[in-house]
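Run: sequence + flavin-adenine dinucleotide -> complex structure.
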Amino acid sequence: MERQIVVIGGGPAGLAAAGKLQEFGYDVILIEKQAEVGGHLNKWYKVFPDFTDASEIVANLKQSLGKTRILNNATVTDIAGSAPNFKVTVSTGEEIDAGAILVATGFKHFDAAFKEEYGYGIYDNCITSVELDAMLKAKSVKTRNGKAPQKVAMVHCVGSRDEKVNNNYCSRVCCTNAIKVSIEIKEQNPDCEIYCLYMDIRVFGRGYEELYRTSQEKFGVQFLRGRLSEAGEKNDGSLLLRLEDTLTAKPMRLSVDLLVLMVGMEGNSELADVAGLTVGCDRFYTTAHQQYSNNASQRQGIFLAGTATAPKAIVESITDGRAAAAEIAGFLASDRVFESSLNGQLVATEMATSLK
Ligand SMILES: Cc1cc2nc3c(=O)[nH]c(=O)nc-3n(C[C@H](O)[C@H](O)[C@H](O)COP(=O)(O)OP(=O)(O)OC[C@H]3O[C@@H](n4cnc5c(N)ncnc54)[C@H](O)[C@@H]3O)c2cc1C
Ligand code: SF4
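>> structure
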């Protein structure tokens, strides 16, 4: 079934890949675990760097899906065979023949409860960046007693660049996300004081540095190079933060009404066994080669895209999805697919012989 391709995961990477593949003339089946496609974009409000509405991006990607068949509330339970003759078993029981498979199953959030010293799950007014986005969307950034906060602190690198939780990598999006949400809070509540507690500011993409400057010059967001050691709750529900100003090496205290933890990304390797994929020490899927074959997996005919392989911003995930589509088309048109098919037959023959 060389003309049929299975895409697993309907986030920006999977949607972009599916759109491109059907444009190339393939029959695409998109398998998505949730009731709706869109991935994490369904949770976001306006996204950095340009404050585009996340729903607009999803709508745009959905428009290019053409005749793609979407299976919602479904996942993959088995992948048998080899390219171009994979047999994919879906959780619904359906079996699908596929010439190639794309895994675009995205990322998971770091569970902030692992950083006990910050008080997530213990203090009412300690929330994550995911919960803050929902509040911004509802235009209702409030403390748990229903008041508009007067002071908010954003803690960068929660669950990233942290040996204690075994995540040494940088999640790449949370600095710019902290800047974006700070601006949005100021737009909705101009009197609110905002402090970003950071280790380093990593704003690397087009328009990101400008956003960083705007947040300071136009909105007065304050950046403190500080390491939060712990948060404690006061009688009125506000939080007392103890931190070290790492520029002056002096201890500091800061009282805030709302503490926002900028949670990092973690690899979603739940299909590793089913798909026969390898996972790196960072727990994201490994690719055939990080430099020149970064969409191929270690199993021939199975490809990878988006944040399944590393933290990425939306535009990078979309571009990566389209790059994977081009890789798949190239693979199916090449001699490699026949070699793979031949190897599959040889393995089948060897197995049949050894079973006799
Ligand atoms: C707090 C936060 C805020 C962010 N804000 C921004 C921003 O403002 N701007 C920006 O550029 N980037 C932002 N990002 C990054 C952005 O969310 C990602 O770049 C993007 O979501 C990655 O897309 P993806 O398709 O790789 O993965 P995802 O969005 O994670 O989509 C993966 C899809 O696969 C599905 N799936 C998972 N497992 C299975 C399975 N086993 N079977 C079937 N389906 C499965 C999921 O349900 C999901 O629909 C933010 C990230 C975080 C953590
Ligand atoms: S992007 Fe910023 S907040 Fe996120 S892990 Fe990297 S340095 Fe930390």
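>> summary
Residues 156-157, 160-161, 170-172, 174-175, 200, 202, 262, 264 surround iron/sulfur cluster (ligand 2) (CB under 6 Å). The longest strand covers residues 222-233.
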